[in-house]
Design brief:
By secondary structure, this protein is mostly helical. The protein is 75% helix and 0% strand. α1 packs antiparallel against α2. The longest helix has 30 residues. The radius of gyration is 20 Å and the shape is rod-shaped.
């Protein structure tokens, strides 16, 4: 989870730098949109795996005669 937070912080710093640098709206969007999507996908995947691991698993029983 720390890696995802660090990536989010880096994304925020890059956002601030892009707006300060006056790159233009199209250039800012071209740089930040893929990074934001990657960060969101990683965050969602991490929370999905965390919730899957919390749920109890169903066991199947095999009866032998």
């Amino acid at each position: 989870m720390n890696g995802i937070r660090r990536f989010g912080l880096m994304l925020g710093i890059l956002t601030i730098g892009a707006f300060i640098g006056l790159l233009g709206l199209k250039n800012i969007f071209l740089i930040l949109a893929p990074l934001f999507l990657l960060w969101f996908i990683l965050w969602d995947d991490k929370s999905y795996h965390r919730n899957v691991n919390r749920k109890p698993t169903q066991h199947t029983y095999v009866y032998k005669r």
